Amino acid sequence: MRGTPWLLAMLVVGWAGAARAEVVNVMPASCLRRDALDFGEYQRRWRFLSLGGGYRVWADKDCYPPRLDDAALAKSERPIGYIVGVGGRDVFVVDFDPLWFTHCKKTAAPVMGSLPVNGETLLALVQHLASLPELASVDLREIGFAEAAMRDKRVLFALYLGTPDRAAYLECFEDLDAAVVRAAQELARGRAPGAPGARP
Question: Are 145 and 2 spatial neighbours (Cβ–Cβ below 8 Å)?
């Protein structure tokens, strides 16, 4: 994983429904119709439909996202809007506000604009997530990742991880490793008995 020695970031952890509405878009990149899915595949989509919010549109528009295995993900130029695997779980790749980097006001250099995130980059990230002990028991269902270039050739990142109960969103950070671990720890903490956002 890429990283620099320091972290410049804002971490927002909240109820997943509120966080989704604020920072991410959950529309599929392309549509599979209900009648194109066998019963097992349709049941797997309920993992996301049960989250409510923007996911209701999938059923309303009869538009369900395809799933990419690791080989297809690695070849994808733009994996946003697809389902991918993270540690054996289906996870939907959400989209960010395309101007997310305009919130990065305290950077050492001006931000030039967003960089495309391809499937190879996302695959490396999801494989790293799957290796983290903090996420082993977390029911991760959403992931979002974005990069932006700064004038001095450094890169800023944004990361979104969502579960049925909680979501962690970090923006404007340079140390990718530290941010990923921090987000994973926050989500894992939410699973502790009696913790805010933990299921009964």
Answer: no
